[in-house]
Amino acid sequence: MKINWKGVMPAVTTKFTTNDTLDLEMFAVNIKAQLDAGVHGIILGGTLGEASTLTNDEKRILVREAVRLVNGKIPVIINIAEQSTVAAKQAAQHAKEDGASGLMMLPPMRYKADSRETVTYFKSVAQSTDLPIMVYNNPVDYGIEVTLDMFSALLNDCPNIQAVKESTRDISNITRIKNRFGDRLAILSGVDTLALESLLMGADGWVAGLVCAFPAETVAIYALAKAGKIDEAIAIYRWFLPLLELDINTKLVQNIKLAEVATGIGTEHVREPRLPLIGEERERVLEIIQEGIKNRPVLPNYKQYL
Description:
The chain contains 12 helices and 8 strands. With about 300 residues, the protein is of the alpha/beta class. The longest helix is centred in the last third of the chain and has 16 residues, at about 280-295. Belongs to the DapA family. Pfam families: DHDPS.
């Protein structure tokens, strides 16, 4: 499947049972909610997917199940976050075998590669597969920035590097990318609390987190913004912001899974070393979620703009 890098692409959580196995039944419930809301793709194995705790077999099961559930309607993208180039190439091969439509790729994990090493890593993996790739550029959390000059080197040699998940937290970077590369590199905002601002500055889409619990509201903001219904998009976004801020937190996985429980499309179970929230921290997050649900807006017919 050719990927049209635009729209809302949920970075979905991984659902676990009380026995710490994959909960494919609840996974299916959530994927159906995303499809019903009109999302444009599904991303597996990111931070929200607790990828660092998943086995390779579990990742492959999730890809195959997601491919089955979406049934060709939208692309399924798997994140690659590996320590070695060999492992990243193998992950790309498995993704292809399992029916994934594309890849989201982080720079090498743990080792802080310099620019030459990072470019070589991305090139080596990209040239080992024909799957389209979105580079995940998040220097704040992962310590390596993919600069415009690095992107230039990649785009010249790797036609399948087609998009960036822009998580530098610098809104002006969207304009820099557009000025430098035009439409050659699609831009998807990777920060929930900067998503609408990014869309208004020309981002093509949104790799979202709180969409896991609030899919319709997330897609509505995107659709209305792109249709020029800015005031309507802003109104929903203002309601959404306290919830979106749950994504900008070390315990974003626990936070978002609590929100999924509240909206009936997920469970709270996380995989150790993560633990469920307790005490005052839990009460604070629940208060934000409950306030959001109490004031949940009535959405316009946003699907007419998709």
